[in-house]
């Protein structure tokens, strides 16, 4: 499972404040925490309205200095990406291209020049998909255009577009079925989701996020943009990888156990005295 | 998801002791706890060596008196079942038949007479299966013999035979693939697993059990013999059912949330003072 840390995203209030204040310490801390928690790549989103280019460029500089991880540039504006890509200097992913008119064609030169991996979103000009069929149609069109432009399947991460379950009870199953179908249709392709969208508007979001990830891993999902600092989620991934036969002699599972990563930490009330008011 | 409570099993030490001592209070308590936790059927296993018939008959009497749930008689001895079935008086399941010579034929009259549901184990005369292919072969033979004998697919629960992951890293994936394949091959059939076998010999068993169940639900599993008193497992099932589109407007998820069933209970140290030594 390829884990892309989601936390450096300027649509999150604290990150946006840090970006606007050019608070590099906070961003560095979030980058390092995600790496320590097991992220293998960091998503970086500089989407502050009107300032996306300079915000993304600043973020890339800070994050590159803080950790030695590849980055996933989270923007669908070619101009923003064109400005930020030269700063990355190494393996990079672009998040994302979709099936809107001309979108793939505009991105192809950048993808080729930087040998970038790319997230291919199952979304067309009509906006977010409604079910399985439009996900398959849009996804196939994007993948076919990318491969037609010389991009290898191994560099493409199909993303079926996770929508909040609170807005439609079939959204989850449509994503699961789309992953199963597209991973079969394009042998060698990868798949990824923006996981936490699924639980938006519902309580106990971590439970839904973790459960959804396991349902999708069972259909072939091999990457996700998620919160690597969610211990329970990461423990579930370790267990699922072992159960899916990808952990020889269960060695990684046993190491995670020895390192205390499979069980919740002791409650704060036992670990240290509660703070005293006043 | 059809939940069959696993706890009244005489291979568990405390249950065996209660059965041998004819301690009806303890058995009643375990039955009621499982019903309150959400079990829709209770597995009852009287497998005390040399005394299985009388132990199972006694257990059936005690459990029937304690709860109003259908029972799953856990024995592969036709004589034991023949003695216990008349005591059940209502909907019943037999756990299990397999592909050993003559096994299905011996069970068919009982299944028909009691209109019993039946767990069809993917296991042949050579013992536990080794991979996907022998699971499919044995499972198909059992199902074909059952349907050939007049049993409806809707009454058959195919069980791919869960083996401990600690004894073979491909056991999990073989079970998942077998469920996907058999549920597709026999539309209308059900599937079930004895869940907790998967984690035998490994640490943090509940994490593996819960993760495995979600991986299997994503392939079509619709029943399981499990510990319904494992709150985290039951919360995961609730989340998965919602994510798989079986919970209109997320109403069952939201009710479970309001009833406090989705989150762990507060640690005992917060709920009540710790016992004082001495």
Describe this structure as you would to a colleague.
The structure is a homodimer of 278-residue chains. Chain A starts with a strand and ends in a 7-residue tail after the last helix. Chain A contains 11 helices and 8 strands. By secondary structure, chain A is an alpha/beta fold. Chain A has an 8-stranded parallel barrel, surrounded by 6 helices. In chain A, α7 links the parallel β6 and β7 (190-194). The radius of gyration of chain A is 19 Å and the shape is globular. In chain A, α8 packs parallel to α9 (231-243). Chain A binds chain B through residues 165-166, 169-170, 172-173, 176, 198, 202-204, 207-208, 210-212, 214-219, 235-236, 239-240, 242-245, 247-250, 253-254, 257, 262-263, 267, 269-270, and chain B through 165-166, 169-170, 172-173, 176, 198, 202-204, 207-208, 210-212, 214-219, 235-236, 239-240, 242-245, 247-250, 253-254, 257, 262-263, 267, 269-270.
Sequence-ordered SSE layout with sheet pairings:
2 copies of one chain form a homodimer.
Chain A: E1 2-9, H1 13-20, H2 24-37, E2 41-45, H3 52-66, E3 71-74, H4 78-88, E4 92-97, H5 103-113, E5 117-121, H6 132-148, E6 156-159, H7 171-185, E7 190-194, H8 205-217, E8 223-226, H9 231-243, H10 251-258, H11 268-271
Parallel strand pairs in A: 1-2, 1-8, 2-3, 3-4, 4-5, 5-6, 6-7, 7-8
Helix pairs in contact in A: 2-3, 3-4, 6-7, 8-9
């Amino acid at each position: 499972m390829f884990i892309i840390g989601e936390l450096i995203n300027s649509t999150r209030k604290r990150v946006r404040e840090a970006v606007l204040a050019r608070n590099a310490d906070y961003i560095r801390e979030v980058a390092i925490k995600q790496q320590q928690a097991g992220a293998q790549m960091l998503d970086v989103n500089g989407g502050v309205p009107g300032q996306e280019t300079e915000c993304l460029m600043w973020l890339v500089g800070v994050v590159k200095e803080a950790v030695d991880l590849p980055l996933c540039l989270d923007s669908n504006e070619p101009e923003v990406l064109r400005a930020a890509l030269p700063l990355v200097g190494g393996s990079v992913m672009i998040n994302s291209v979709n099936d809107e008119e001309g979108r793939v064609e505009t991105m192809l030169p950048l993808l080729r020049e930087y040998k970038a991996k790319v997230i291919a979103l199952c979304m067309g000009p009509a906006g977010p998909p409604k079910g399985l069929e439009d996900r398959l149609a849009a996804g196939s069109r994007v993948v076919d255009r990318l491969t037609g432009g010389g991009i290898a399947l191994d560099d493409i991460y199909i993303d079926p577009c996770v929508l909040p379950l609170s807005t439609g009870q079939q959204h989850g199953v449509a994503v699961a079925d789309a992953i199963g179908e597209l991973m079969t249709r394009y042998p060698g392709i990868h798949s990824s989701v923006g996981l936490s969208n699924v639980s938006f508007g519902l309580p106990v979001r971590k439970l839904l996020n973790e459960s959804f990830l396991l349902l999708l891993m069972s259909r072939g999902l091999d990457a996700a943009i998620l919160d690597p600092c969610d211990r329970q989620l990461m423990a579930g991934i370790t267990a699922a990888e072992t159960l899916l036969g990808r952990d020889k002699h269960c060695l990684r599972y046993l190491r995670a156990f020895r390192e205390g990563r499979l069980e919740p930490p002791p409650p704060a009330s036992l670990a240290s005295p509660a703070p005293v008011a006043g």
